[in-house]
Amino acid sequence: MPTVATSTAPPFGRVSFPRTALVLMRLAWARTGSPLLMLGVLVVLCLPVLFSLMFASRGALSGDPIDFLLARYDTIVAGLATPLIALLLGTSAFSAETDDGTLLYLVTTTTPRWWIVMARLLFASLLTGVLTSLSVFASGFVAVGLSDPEGIVTAYTVAVFYGGVTYAALFTMLALLTRRSLVVGLIYVLFWEGALSDTFQAIRYLSVRQWMNAVAEPMIAGGGDGVGPSATYALVGAVVVVAITVYVGGRRLHEPRMGRIGS
Could you tell me if residue 230 is inside a domain? Predict the structure, then answer.
């Protein structure tokens, strides 16, 4: 009796998550990497370096480089550069794909909706972390060279990667919930993270900027002042934000009226 050959090909519709993630990330880059957006990102990244150049140009008159770096990393890198870059990267891809119909095509494929959200989150968080860490290193090098006094440059390099993930998750979820995500995100960065978190002590526990500082403080010689959230609290908060984003985003992409998604 003849033997019937059996096929070893994978079943139709099986998803390769790593390969799908790469495709989705390349698609996000194609939708995000416009010259105007990249120019805006470059301007934001150059701000800490410009302040460091002004500091270095004054020599001994500039004061303590450790105090300078701590202040600039808190206000410019953690308070401005990281959230703004994450906002631009986290909202632009979904907005462009909604306008040209690409998102509607993606949700009709066998790719799970939650994985589409996760791939966008990976894209925005990794790119935000890499770009802001370069800004941290460049501004630190201009101010103090390669000495890295008290581990400040290293601490904030880790912190901006953490902040990139957390902010990217927050703004990706925002892009899925409203077509005014860019405006709402700017209001959040300028008022909630800026004015309110510096004024009211309780808001520090709900501020990603303060969470970034909490992650950096244990790695700095001498530690922090012990005021505000701890590093453990910040890490748990990031996990919660990412989990909510993936869950809400997956549910959101199941809804038919995706014209509401975008910036």
Answer: yes
Q: How many domains does the chain have?
A: 1
**Could you report the per-residue pLDDT of 5-14, keeping only the tens digit for each?**
444 444 445 6
Separation between Cα atoms, residue 221 and residue 125, nearest integer Å: 27
Q: Is residue 105 part of a domain?
A: yes
Asked if 75 and 82 count as a contact pair (C-beta separation under 8 A), the reply is no
Render pLDDT for 95-123 as a digit per residue (tens, 0 to 9). 767 766 677 777 878 888 888 888 889 98
Q: Is residue 5 part of a domain?
A: no
pLDDT band at 164 (very low <50, low <70, confident <90, very high): very high
* 247 in Cβ contact with 117 (< 8 Å): no
- Identify whether 9 is part of a domain: no
Domain that holds residue 131: 17-260
Helices H, strands E: what count in the chain? 11, 0
Give me the amino acid identity at 159: A
